[in-house]
Amino acid sequence: MSILTPTVLADLEKQSIELPSWAFGNSGTRFKVFGTPGTPRDPFEKIADAAQVHKHTALAPTVALHIPWDMCDFGDLRKHAEDLGVELGTINSNTFQDDDYKFGALTHEDAAIRQKAIDHHLACIDVMDATGSRDLKIWLAEGSNYPGQADLRGRQDRLHESLQKIYTRLGDDQRLVLEYKFFEPAFYHTDVPDWGTSYAQVSALGEKAMVCLDTGHHAPGTNIEFIVMQLLRLGKLGSFDFNSRFYADDDLIVGAADPFQLFRILFEVIRGGGLNNPDVAFMLDQCHNVEDKIPGQIRSVLNVQEMTARALLVDRDALTTAQKSGDVLAANTVFMDAFYTDVRPALAEWRESRGMDADPMAAYAASGYQQKIAADRVGGVQAGWGA
Amino acid sequence: MSILTPTVLADLEKQSIELPSWAFGNSGTRFKVFGTPGTPRDPFEKIADAAQVHKHTALAPTVALHIPWDMCDFGDLRKHAEDLGVELGTINSNTFQDDDYKFGALTHEDAAIRQKAIDHHLACIDVMDATGSRDLKIWLAEGSNYPGQADLRGRQDRLHESLQKIYTRLGDDQRLVLEYKFFEPAFYHTDVPDWGTSYAQVSALGEKAMVCLDTGHHAPGTNIEFIVMQLLRLGKLGSFDFNSRFYADDDLIVGAADPFQLFRILFEVIRGGGLNNPDVAFMLDQCHNVEDKIPGQIRSVLNVQEMTARALLVDRDALTTAQKSGDVLAANTVFMDAFYTDVRPALAEWRESRGMDADPMAAYAASGYQQKIAADRVGGVQAGWGA
Amino acid sequence: MSILTPTVLADLEKQSIELPSWAFGNSGTRFKVFGTPGTPRDPFEKIADAAQVHKHTALAPTVALHIPWDMCDFGDLRKHAEDLGVELGTINSNTFQDDDYKFGALTHEDAAIRQKAIDHHLACIDVMDATGSRDLKIWLAEGSNYPGQADLRGRQDRLHESLQKIYTRLGDDQRLVLEYKFFEPAFYHTDVPDWGTSYAQVSALGEKAMVCLDTGHHAPGTNIEFIVMQLLRLGKLGSFDFNSRFYADDDLIVGAADPFQLFRILFEVIRGGGLNNPDVAFMLDQCHNVEDKIPGQIRSVLNVQEMTARALLVDRDALTTAQKSGDVLAANTVFMDAFYTDVRPALAEWRESRGMDADPMAAYAASGYQQKIAADRVGGVQAGWGA
Amino acid sequence: MSILTPTVLADLEKQSIELPSWAFGNSGTRFKVFGTPGTPRDPFEKIADAAQVHKHTALAPTVALHIPWDMCDFGDLRKHAEDLGVELGTINSNTFQDDDYKFGALTHEDAAIRQKAIDHHLACIDVMDATGSRDLKIWLAEGSNYPGQADLRGRQDRLHESLQKIYTRLGDDQRLVLEYKFFEPAFYHTDVPDWGTSYAQVSALGEKAMVCLDTGHHAPGTNIEFIVMQLLRLGKLGSFDFNSRFYADDDLIVGAADPFQLFRILFEVIRGGGLNNPDVAFMLDQCHNVEDKIPGQIRSVLNVQEMTARALLVDRDALTTAQKSGDVLAANTVFMDAFYTDVRPALAEWRESRGMDADPMAAYAASGYQQKIAADRVGGVQAGWGA
Fold first, then answer.
1. pLDDT of residue C34
2. A182, closest residue in chain B (CA to CA)
3. Sign of the torsion angle spanned by Cα atoms D145, D151, D153, D158
């Protein structure tokens, strides 16, 4: 019998993780972007690659788009996705690559540039209407590099005004999720640097505005699961951008750098009612700078699934008993027992029971898809960030 | 003519910085507390030492107390303070030194222990009534050391309930300020680890609850002046605990570790209307582990004064012009010009114009006070943290 | 059949981890030290407690002492230890608790104080002669809190001179291991803050001087396994002080904060020939501030054993093949497969095969020892750090 | 009379700071590189811009080149530089932008790729012969992103072998300086992550190999001036790459983020005999992502000069007296007095006494050079990193 109970399996059955279209394009550092054979040249090819991840894992039914990187005929793209068994998801805006935005976009001193950035977001909402997407995700890359360069307070006020104008345009079933980030690309100050700022800003907008938590966007030593707990408690956790990091915003495969941290995060998600809760979207936001992209995404969703399974295995009654009695070691033991349990064989069984291969990484490698796209996708310009 | 304009001098004239009574007692690390000759044995002697700081600087008219470390007859203490030209200020509670609080106080699983901690705070409000203090400062030392040890979410909810009971008891002119701290004494999680949590908790209480920002309580690399700006903008910055640090909560003399950071903080205070604003209390919270205590406090208030003067010297019009035109270097130059201006001679003049010595450190050293207390305070138990 | 091959089991069979006598005494933070029933009052009781850890795990045959905390008749103590089935191990010196050392010991400006500190170390070598210990461990708690306070360069030169005098006194089979620490108790500078400084200092002494790596003594984000690799490569890794930390030198149970980091460290130990290598001592250096002490030590040595087993399971040939072919995901998968393998049942079997209980934590709890010492050890002063 | 004594002025007179040619080209983050009018299109135009910095400051007589970014006819370039009053300086190699180097260069598993990287360095030495440069600077951008991806130990050994081959080719008056960097572009491990590793590697090569310290390449909280002190003490500080940072390797203008840190670094340089010592090269390594480039470099060299002047003002005798007597506050006061002294008017006088404009920033702005290059440099491809 599986170590995963029917209840646990039912939870896992419902799990879905959104893939970022840009993970299938090239990415890198300011020093170098390495290209790879078979990299998509357009959004249609990105969707095709994303569909492979879902095919082998049954975990990734939706794909997030980035505007303008994924500009195309969205009716066609939606049809293309559905034909491949996936759907279009969150729409991500971009206010960091236009020359006008060198000193800010939604926060810029110049009203005309602010309006341009607002209009970009309204255009993104048009895209959402076309794609059937629910969420508009705003990562605010704005900030300054030198003390004195910017008026921190004025920018915060202008940010509120700009967000308000975007918020007003949202449909009844649409949401705005505001991502925070500790630093980069700005080095001295970032206009939404922490969860507190994102929380204050979205609270001032209304119920359709939520916080997006990217697991790589915190200061060293930050207890991220505490923030997860708090945002769930405050009813404002809108989505996750999963990835992992050792030092900065490394955008590595989720769970790769500190698997135990991912376990603790998922435990708080479950504890706070955030698992399989439509209000809390699970997304990846990663860069496969040196590893293969499609297998990198497969590994990522498997990591989230495996760690969710481990977190679901925590004996909550035993944990509560130990916590209430102040038995530190007993409580920690209950917690670690779940983490150290090897759920991989049971998940392989689960996949087989659904007609999938036990080992998605091997199945993908054996499928010949990688060789096919490497052979087919010759010529054109490989997709990337256009930085 | 002084480089400090009459307007700047008028602002400096109003400045007052509260001293912590515990800075005059012994403190140290978990490895060692070094004692020094002349260290106070009781709150009366601490107040006497604090009065010396005010005498030589005219900057420190109030003294914060810590309960139970400063338990005594508060009517007598108030009279004693007034006789020495100072007043009693903020009352600090203590929920980290009773054996019952090993696993929490206001957040404890056990309702009886929570009530004990609440009662302690109600007793502190009684003290406030006796001392005429406005602010009850709560630093929540609670947390856990091991993942699984504590129910993060449950503790947060219990914290709210406990704070609510304390808040209700506040008088019309009294306030509760909630301090946040990144880590220590708990190592895995802290119940109020960041400004966002403190903000969410005090917002749920009401207008008399505010956030206390201790400059040493942040993760590495945190932009503290941004938080100052944000809390002022949200109307929730209740007080500062000034000190400085290189790595952790070092509690060094304010401005000693990163003077430019102090400048940036004070600039945002001024920019956001927080200077000489009764809603925003300036306090020190420091430990003089290896340096002399009274001179350490004198140096501290002088550091705040000098840096306030520099921040007041920023040419705000020129700064705005440069910011609006995107001239990064010009804006930074305006900012740095103020920082690099040597205000010390002008402040020495200002002191002399008020009948004080130009050099408070020298004046104190020459006063013979240190020799006197070293000679007089023989026997008894030197004050410390009682850890 | 066990997942642990005979080769792996043979390696595990040889593993030994030294316990610190001070882990059985009370410890805490600068804010509070909580006492617990049954805490030892003298070194003899500490050794008795340490023997319990070895009894239930067969992993901890030696106990490190701290001078002067463990001063006693060392002939008696050695006999006492042997009667209980353990031996005395590393001798730790203390240059941070004497009032003379407020501004340094081996680095002090005053030659008389330096000599006092040197003499203390010579006395420690006398203790080593009496206890039969091989290693003198020097953790240099010296440093300064304020820029300008100390002459960094002069202190470094004096440190060399002082160490030279201690080194000269070592017996042929004795060693000096020099521990480095990022910060605390000094906050601005520490005289041996990093492995580079320790390496430079011990290299200048000679072959009997080595570096001690405490896993909690690094800056945020430091790749500790890299340092392990480098020191092994340079032939200068003398010993480990194992513990874990979230933020600073938390001294938590090894493996508790970041189990994957412990795995990576042990993998590099194995890769570099440091496992069961007499030159590389495995020690714990932890504080059980809130959890039970003896079970805390049992958990600790089990954590090291379990993670060593996982690291031994890495398929080195497969890893090398993947590394050589630049297959990032395959290499990472080989690595993670070992980490995620649940070795606990196999280790339980191994214990049973040696006549021990499968579950050392349960066996200790059931033994009644804790109740016995709580009842017996009444009166006297509980051991602690004497801070 | 100037506050700068003749001795101080004589030291300042000798100061020279090398400029990086790449600071005059475009740079940015992985998200965006903003171009600016007038940006050089080739090394000749970079040299012309660099000469402007020297013209207005008399501080920057040499320019470092980066190979292959600055490949050209070096005889012509040398002549061009001399005509403009500057000289060619350090040659920087590049092993991070060739597709072959995705998994390493000097450390690669494949001997053929290692040889390619070695050959690149030998070609750089050929360039040095042509340019008359003394120093070959190697920043090793190599590392890995995922645990298990790379054999840390094997790479370190291969690094030694590769460096040895390069070292052997150095001329009698040439040097190799090895830069270390905490992280980026690799995220999990970097092959030369800290000064200890660079020191161990260059020590194994010989006297012509030295360490390069980039002030932005350390973990959070690292005491950089301590490393400066230690490397000077060990005789292995070959050069500085000056810049500043708030969080990661931000490459901001030196002194911009933490001016007091720059002061402390320069104090240790002076204390350790590193000022105007030919063995210790002062260089900038910065990116002007959002500010003007030529004025950015002018500001940078002025910052170094001003802070050197402040550090030279420290009353070393008074400092020593305070340090020897354990008077923490007195020592700190001596130190801070120098930092807070406004040396800018005296340096303006010094410039005027040498026939330069008092305000180099204003003089450059008034010169019309910026307008001229903006008008002239039309067409072609603006120089950048070619990432």
1. 96
2. B222
3. negative
